[in-house]
Amino acid sequence: MAFSKFEDAKPLTKSSASSTVAGAMKPAAKLSATAKPVAGSSESALKGKSSSKNASPKPTWNSSTRLENKTPSPTTPKVSARAPWPSTPTTSPATPVTPAITPSATTAAPSITTTTVTRETVVAEVKKATGIKLSPISTATTFKPLERIVQKSNITDTQEPASSVTRGILRITATVDGVKQVESLPVVCKTTPIFATPGADSIPEQLEWSGSDLKGYVTAHGAFHSRGNSDLAAKHIMQLVGWDVQGPVDGVFHIVTYTALAPLGTLKDRICDLARGANYRRAASRRQAAGQHRLMPGTRAEWTEIFNLLIAKLEQLAVFRAHGIVMPDNKFVNDLVTAVNCLAAIDWDGYCVAAPGCKASFPVTWRTPVTPKFAAPEQLRADSPCTTSTSHVFHLGRDLLNVLFFMVGDLRTRAQSSGKEGWGGAFNEEMLTGLARIAMRCVAEKPSQRPSLAALKADLQRLNLRAASRV
Fold it and tell me: Which residues lie below 8 Å from residue 388, measured CB to CB, with a gap of 6+?
């Protein structure tokens, strides 16, 4: 749902397993299981231990020391120097005299283990922290990943991935009147970890970040419902298919959310496809995924639909502002095109709602999902960083400049393949220049210098009328 967030994090790495010694080495193996966690493990990351210097040294076994001070009896057969073949002992082995391999109270396992935290405990804490009333998925489901969108990290000074977002197919199996039925839904799957090793007392603090996506979803819906506008919530917020808690695996649970996926993709995907030559009838298919449309011959772009989508984005921001909703990480990739000129927000991580009559301004902390590339200056300043409704205008300008970069490249490539110069004609250049001017006005340093949503909508409508006259 960053997530600050850092992309392209390394996959979650498992802690190296303790090695065992062949033969009569069971005391050493038992001691290694109680050693302190090594650097890079999830437990070490949460406890702030980034070095393995304090870890207990791995005990060694000296077979010659084992019989060093033991006087053999005359009837004792000669002991072979070769290590004994491992087998089930029939007699009690001799007590080793080396104190380094003798387990003691100081090397005993910690009192808090992963078994103290169950899935039911995590589910109860998630409901308490987020306020979600929807129960976890109870039917048999299988998720088939198709494409990893992004992998983010928010754990300071570690390489542990804090969340991952993947497109895929969710298969739901149910039995109705004795008949097995399988339903397949295209979804976006987001997973966020909950570490069970510190114990149940640490889960509420972890959920301040790990559960913020579900909490933002509940918060946004509550803002609409409190004003009697549930229909607007269904239009502007993407439907949550379900959520679940999976695990534990290596002492880590995962909060999993499934959001319905629109076939036209994100707002960024759709605008880029339209610049490549897609139109109302040529949408995404199985061979041409959203955002990966092939370059079509010619230089025509569906400018009318592009402007209508941007106007729909402004209308969405106006609706959110009217309901006091502030989004700290508002980006084109966090909006799905559900139908022609219709947008619905996803990734509700960090959503906040201002009370009626209060200023919509919220502080930015280390838990606030902010992408530095798109963040407004007031979100990154050293003194009292905050997110306001005016920050949404800056986000819009940054996203528009980012999309224009890809549009210019695609239109230039199409023009060259068609034997034309530039971006495919004076009309395309006029439209691109108009969008660039709007974007530059949005990214003004001071919030007071940025245009209002109404002024931006009027500018886009003028460009839209110009584009419609060329159809």
Answer: 326, 359, 360, 361, 362, 378, 447
In a domain, 438, yes or no: yes
Could you tell me if residue 27 is inside a domain?
Answer: no
Q: Which helix (H) or strand (E) covers residue 248, if one does?
A: strand 240-249
Residue 194 counted as domain residue: no
Give residues with Cβ within 8 angstroms of 186, minimum separation 6: 167, 168, 169, 170, 260, 261, 263
* Residue 332 located in a structural domain: yes
Quote the percentage of the chain above a pLDDT of 90. Answer: 38
* Residue 186: both structure tokens together: 């295209």
The CATH code of the domain that includes 311 is: 1.10.510.10
Q: Which helix (H) or strand (E) holds 462?
A: helix 453-468
Percent of the chain with pLDDT over 70: 69
Q: Are 243 and 256 in contact (CB under 8 A)?
A: yes
Name the pLDDT band for 291 (thresholds 50, 70, 90).
Answer: low
Range of the domain at 314: 263-286+294-468
Residue 152 has pLDDT above 80, yes or no: no
Peptide bond into 248 cis (omega under 30): yes
pLDDT at 247 over 70: yes
Number of domains in the chain: 1
